Amino acid sequence: MSETLFLERLTLSHFRSHRRAVLDVDARPLAIYGPNGAGKTNLLEAVSLFSPGRGMRRASAEAMTRRPEAIGWKLGGQVAGPGGRSEVAFVSEQGQPRQVRIDEKAQPQVALGRLVRVLWLVPSMDRLWIEGAEGRRRFLDRMTLSFFPDHAEASLDYEKAMRDRNRLLKDQVRDAHWYRALEAQMARTGAQIQANRQEALTRIAAAQQGAETAFPAAELELSAGEGELYAEEVALGLALEASRPRDLAAGRTLIGPHRADLIGTYAAKGVPAADCSTGEQKALLISLILANARAIAADFGAPPILLLDEVAAHLDAGRRAALYAEVTALGAQAWMTGTGPELFAELGGAAQYVEVTEDKGESQVTQKDMP
After folding, report:
1. pTM, whole model, 2 decimals?
2. Is residue 263 situated within a structural domain?
């Protein structure tokens, strides 16, 4: 199979509830336990920042700084992967966006995607199938970004052009030449977004086929609601031009990849994910994360780092054991949180154990032997 990808060291300074923390770990899964509010999820959030984007909480840099000092924060880590070892560091000063340095050289965030792949599953995602389409698009784009690091840049370029176009629409500007350059940029990047998303779904589907897993497979498809999905740049450009009168009336852009939705179906039952039980919806999510990880392992040469926040709390003992067995077989470094070590009993010596406690508003991190 693939090589391994993991963090060998993680250091935090004035990050959330952690004044100072250092973890020296290996490629095995990490069982992180402690009471609610102790700072377990903050560790996972720190690791999520090793991938492009705003991290698993989508928080601002200012929100991540430790209070009451509010002097900014630092993260560091040594990454071991198929390309060797690299030192990665992040600094946010007084609420400013984080600055990225790889091997002591300043780099854009997109460079992280070429070095590290990170996937996460957090409790807020449990509502994925019953919330609005925006959350599902975000989930889809995270999957897509795990295969195509430049997907984030295309999405940002598209959103910037769309914001400028929407401003013209709200101001009721009707002169066509103001729209042409913006629509050309939206057509180019929008077609790339659609192509990336579709290819990501193709890879996820392939990773689910033939996989022996205790978790149900999900069939995924893209929907444009009442509109149409445009995979070709020319077609999207013409559609944007034709849609101007309707968009002027609405004051916003009504077609394009920002209107897409992700539709999931419990494959074995043929039941829409939105109509499944809470337990089935959770199992489908886990299945997709594992399929995404398998596909990345085939594409990237190593399985991604997995962040599974409170994942064991809503699984029975059989499903927990199945999840841990799949993570171990995959060879992924999975950072998993729970309130007590008993939730990870099925892992035994296959995991590393970290206890997180809280004392006077400050998180304390202690690496433990197997309980």
Report:
1. 0.93
2. no
Q: Can you tell me the distance from the alpha carbon of 277 to that of 281, in angstroms, rounded to the nearest whole number?
A: 6
> Cβ(104)–Cβ(75) under 8 Å?
no
Cis before 108? omega within 30 = no
Q: Which residues contact 248 (CB under 8 A, 6 or more apart)?
A: 169, 172, 174
How long, in residues, is the chain?
371
- Helix (H/G/I), strand (E/B), else coil: 30: strand
Q: Convert the pLDDT of each residue in 79-104 to its tens digit.
A: 999 889 999 999 999 889 999 999 99
Mean pLDDT across the stretch 55-65?
A: 94
Q: Determine the Cα–Cα distance for residues 61 and 50; give it in Å rounded to an integer.
A: 14
Q: Evaluate if residue 336 carries a pLDDT over 90.
A: yes
Report residue 226's pLDDT band, with 50, 70 and 90 as the boundaries.
low
Mean pLDDT rounded to a whole number for the chain: 94
Which residue carries 């990870």 as its tokens?
A: 344
**198 in any annotated domain:** no
- Inform me whether the pLDDT recorded for 214 exceeds 90: no
Q: Is residue 354 part of a domain?
A: yes
Task: Residue 34: give the domain boundaries.
Answer: 1-117+302-371
Q: Which two tokens stand for residue 148?
A: 């195509």
The CATH code of the domain that includes 33 is: 3.40.50.300
For residue 1, the model assigns a pLDDT of 38
186 contacts: CB under 8 Å, gap ≥ 6: 158, 161, 162, 165, 236, 237, 240, 253, 256
If you search the block for the tokens 């009721």, which residue do you land on? 172
Q: What is the pLDDT of residues 168-209, one digit of tens each?
A: 999 999 999 999 999 999 999 999 999 999 999 999 999 998
Contact 50, 126 (CB under 8 A): no
Strand partners, 336: 31, 308
In a domain, 344, yes or no: yes
What lies within 8 Å, CB to CB, of 120 at 6+ separation is 44, 48, 56, 306, 307, 308, 309
Percent of the chain's residues with pLDDT above 70: 99
Torsion sign across C-alpha atoms 65, 70, 72, 78: negative
- Facing residues of 65 across strands? 15
Q: Give me the number of domains the chain comprises.
A: 1
First to last CA, the chain: 31
